Amino acid sequence: MTSFRLSRSVIGVLSGILAAVCYGTNPLGALNLYNDGMNTGSVLFCRFGLALIILTIVMLCRGESFRVSRREFMILSVMGVLFSLSSLSLYVSFHYMAAGIASTLLFLYPIMTAVLMYVVFRERFSWTTAVSIVLSMVGVLLLYRGDMGTHLSTTGVILVLISSFTYALYIIFADKSGLRMSVFKVNFYVLIYCTLGALIYACFVSGDLSLPHSAKAWFYACWLAVVPAIMALVLMYYAAQIVGSTATAITGAFEPLTAMLIGVLVFDEPFGCKVALGMALILASVVLIALSKRVKGVSS
């Protein structure tokens, strides 16, 4: 019996790590498609559109109903808009800063979530939360100033902070909404808004909507839809069920590490001592606040 429990816990942790690694590959697909001439709106439209098609097929195969109540539709609409804004601002930030640094700054969302829960719902503000905030702020400052006297783009930093903030709102709204439906149905409706948001951005902001025009580009578009979207979603769901939300949040630290490795090794993005220390402080702040929580696993 002990070995069975151990094997399940190992599977849960590995699922969380793989989910974070999968999500951390966002820059691999996005930057390659940018280099291929596609704009942000087009990249996101392909990513979300393909993911939406896949989820539709999955739900049909599962025989799952697409029907939702009016209240559920309103909640899913807000969640869809928030997630769409978060994804869009993150992908636009890749034009202003290294993707690895952007992904690290995005990982501030657990800190923002804790602060928002205190401000809005008056949850207890512990000393660990305060220390986490200080560590994260110092980490952001180190990343902003960088090495060799370089500075991050202020526009890029603001975009990532918007992405992190809207994702924190998304998490809180999903948690407090009381939705009782499968993870596939929730994300099906969220992806509808993400696809529409990307389409609107591509047509009215980027100026045009383009599809991948080579086999290589289609590969990376499918990669974005399958690996950092569908696979990350499913693996994170199972990890939370097996080992709980706290352990899953800690394994999420592999997300910015993966993005940073891809940026440095594949796209020759800069990496120095201040960047390394800044990343370490931000990751430490998130791990600290995750350890301070006592959150149960997600129910099926």
Q: How many strand segments?
A: 0
Distance between the termini: 23 Å
Number of distinct helices: 12
**Major β-sheet profile:** none
Structure classification:
mainly alpha
Radius of gyration, taken over Cα atoms and rounded to an integer in Å: 19 Å
Relative strand content: under 5%
Helix content: over 70%
Instruction: Give the overall average pLDDT.
Output: 83
Low-confidence parts lasting 5 or more residues at pLDDT below 50?
Answer: 1-6, 294-300
Shape type: globular
Order of helices and strands: HHHHHHHHHHHH
Give the number of domains: 1
Outline the structure in words.
This protein has twelve helices and no strands. By secondary structure, the protein is mainly alpha-helical. It has one domain. Helix 2 packs parallel to helix 11 (about 255-265) and helix 5 packs parallel to helix 8. The longest helix has about 35 residues, at about 215-250. It is globular, with a radius of gyration of 19 Å. It starts with a helix and ends in an 8-residue tail after the last helix.
In short:
The protein has helices at 2-23, 26-35, 40-62, 70-93, 99-106, 109-121, 127-145, 154-177, 183-206, 215-251, 254-267, 273-292.
Provide the fold topology:
Blueprint lengths: L1 H22 L2 H10 L4 H23 L7 H24 L5 H8 L2 H13 L5 H19 L8 H24 L5 H24 L8 H37 L2 H14 L5 H20 L8
Helix pairs in contact: 1-10, 1-11, 2-10, 2-11, 3-9, 3-10, 4-8, 4-9, 5-8, 5-11, 6-8, 7-12, 10-12
